[in-house]
Amino acid sequence: MAKRDTSFICQSCGAAYTRWQGKCEACGAWNTLAEEVAVVASVPAAQRSGRKGRSVALETLQGTATPAPRMVCGIGELDRVAGGGFVPGSVLLIGGDPGIGKSTLLVQASAALAASGQRVIYVSGEEAVDQVRLRAQRLGLEQAPVSLAAETNAENIIATLSGGPPVHMVVIDSIQTMWSDSVESAPGTVTQVRTSAQLLVRYAKQTGACVILVGHVTKDGQIAGPRVVEHMVDAVFSFEGDGGHQFRILRAQKNRFGPTDEIGVFEMTGRGLSEVANPSELFLSNRDAGAPGTAVFAGMEGTRPVLVEIQALVAPSSLGTPRRAVVGWDPNRLSMVLAVLDARCGVRLGGHDVYLNVAGGLRIGEPAADLAVAAALVSSLTGAPLPADAVYFGEASLTGAVRQVAQAAARLKEAAKLGFARAVLPSGGLDGVDAQVSLQSVGSLAELVAAIAACAPRRPAMRDSRGGGEREQRPRAVEHTEWADDEAG
Ligand code: TYD
Ligand code: MG
Predict the structure, then answer these.
(1) Would the annotation count 96 as a binding residue?
(2) Where do the RecA family profile domain residues begin and end (predicted)?
(3) 135 with 148: CB under 8 angstroms?
(4) Which helix (H) or strand (E) holds 17?
(5) Distance between CA atoms of 299 and 385, rounded to whole angstroms?
(6) What gap in Å lies between CA 164 and CA 159, rounded to an integer?
(7) Extended strands (E) in 270-427
C-alpha cells in the first residue's frame, strides 16, 4: 500500500524535514525548504516479498576485459580537463553561470565527436530544436551528424536512447529541467533533479554511453539542486569566466578518471569558443610593465605552467578597519602574507587599504603565489616598480622564510619562452635544472622586501591623502624597518 507523504526538502542540500522551518539544519542555508509530495510505499518492497537477497560473485582487482578506449573529441582543452578524453559509461556534470557558454561548448564537443563517427544525442530541455539549430548554424556546425531532441521527461529520454544503434554520448541540457514520472513533485525540485539524475546515471552505467549533464549555478557559485548529484556523477566541471573578459576557464572540481587541477582555457568569439593554447600570452597581453604594484607570477595549473600578472594597490586608509579586497586569490592567504610582512619584515600595512587582483580573471589556488603577492604589495607601498623582465614564485611560511615549490623547472621554462630574463625564487632545489633565465634566490620575505626597497625612489613625491600637497618623504609604513635606510645602498 502506498501513501502520500508531504515533506519539506532543502533545495540546496536535499535534507528532508516533516515540518517547514526557516533554516536547514543540515547545510545552514536559509529559506531553502520547499514542500514536496512523494508517494512512498508504507512497507519497503524487500520486506513485503520476504526476499533475502542473492549473493553476487566476487571478482579480483586484476581484470581480463580491456576497458573501452576514451573518446577524444578533438577539442584539446576539453579532452585534457576530462583526463585525456571522455570515459565510456561515465557521467559528467558541467556547471556554470547562465550565458557563460555551456551549451555552446557542448554543441561544439557533440559536433566534433559526431563528425568522428560516434553516435551523439543532444537533448535540450531549455531550448527548442530550432534554437539549438540556430546556434549550430552560427558555429558553422549544422552539417555535423548530431541527433537532436527537445524533451524534459527522463523516462522518454531513456526510451529514446535505448531504441536504435548504441549511443556513445548524450548531452542533457540541463538536469534542472528534467522530471520523472516516478515522483510527484514539480520539475526543478530537488527530488525531481535527483531522480532524473539517478535514472540517467543508471542508463550510462548499463549501456556504456557517456552522459554529460549541464547544471545551473546558484548566486553563490554552487551547482544548483542537491549536492547529491555531485556525489552521483563521476566528474564535476565548472565553466567560469567573468563578463568583462572574453575568455572562459573549464576547471575540474572532481574527476574519478583524471586529474582535478587541470584547466582548459577558451576564448568566446563570434563563432563559438576557440581554444587558447598558450594562456600565459593571453593573461599577460595588456600588462602595465614598469608600474609599481605589479608582479608576474609563474604558476602551474595542473601540468601546464601559466604566467599571470598580480596587481596590488596599497593606499592609506581613511577607515577604522582598513579594507582588504581580493579578486582571484584566497583572502585568508592575503591576510597571512600581510601578517608575515608585518611581523617578520617590519612592513606595517595596518593603516592601509589593500587591494589585490589577479589580472585577466584567473583564479589562483597555489600558495606558490605568496612571493609574487608580497613583491607586488611592497612594490605598491614603496612606489618602486619591479623589474619588468622578472617572474616570481615561492611559498611564504609563517616564520618569514620562503619555501620551495613544485615544478620549478617547468615554471622557469615557460618564463624563458615568454621572454622573461630573470626569476626571483626560493633558494635550492634546482639541481640539474638548465635555467635559461638568471636566478635570484631569496631565503626570506625580509630579503625580498630589502631588495625592492633598495630600488625605491629615495624621496618619492607622495601625495598626502589628508593634507593634499606633496610630501617629501618615504612612505610612513616602511620608515621604521631595520633595513630602510642603512641597508638600502
Ligand atoms: P550559451 O552557450 O547559450 O550559454 P549557457 O548555455 O551557458 O547559458 O552562450 C551564450 C552566450 O555566448 C551568449 O551571450 C552569446 C555568446 N556567444 C558568442 O559570443 N558567440 C557564439 O558563437 C555563440 C554561439 C554564443
Ligand atoms: Mg544553455
Answers:
(1) yes
(2) 67-217
(3) no
(4) strand 16-17
(5) 21
(6) 10
(7) 272-275, 294-301, 304-316, 324-327, 352-358, 390-392, 395-396, 402-403, 422-426
Residue 74 labelled as part of a binding site = no
Which residues' Cβ are closer than 6 Å to ligand 1? 96, 98-104, 135, 138-139, 268, 270-272
Place of cell 541540457: 173
Q: 105 CA to middle of ligand 1, Å?
A: 9
Question: Does the annotation list 434 as a binding residue?
Answer: no
The Cα-based distances of 137 to 132, 197, 237, 287, 294 in angstroms read 9, 30, 26, 36, 43
**Cα gap 6→464, rounded to integer Å:** 66
CB 308 within 8 A of CB 296: yes
Number of residues assigned to the chain: 489
Kindly report the number of other CB atoms within 10 A of residue 320's CB atom. Answer: 5
Q: Report which protein residue has its CA nearest ligand 1's atom 17.
A: 272
Whether the ω angle into residue 182 lies within 30 degrees of 0, i.e. cis, is no
Q: What is the pLDDT of residue 45?
A: 59
Q: Are strands 147-150 and 120-124 parallel, antiparallel or unpaired?
A: parallel
Residue 238's DSSP bridge partners are 95, 251
* 186 CA to centre of ligand 1 in angstroms: 28
Q: Of 251, 273, 211, give the one whose Cα is nearest residue 86.
A: 211
Task: Give the three cell numbers for residue 426.
Answer: 626560493
Q: Would you say the C-alpha torsion 343, 344, 346, 347 has a positive or negative sign?
A: negative
Index of the ligand 1 atom closest to the CA of residue 106: 2
DSSP alpha helices (H): ranges in 82-128? 102-115
The answer to whether 142 and 103 are in contact (CB under 8 A) is no
pLDDT on residue 466? 42
Residue of 110, 75, 78 lying closest to 255 (CA atoms): 78
pLDDT at residue 43 in the model:
55
Mean pLDDT in consecutive groups of 10 residues from the start of the chain, 489 residues: 72 84 87 73 59 86 78 92 93 90 94 94 94 94 93 94 92 92 82 91 94 82 68 91 80 88 89 89 80 93 89 92 93 95 92 92 90 96 92 95 92 91 88 83 93 74 41 45 39
How much distance in Å is there from the Cα of 110 to the middle of ligand 1? 16
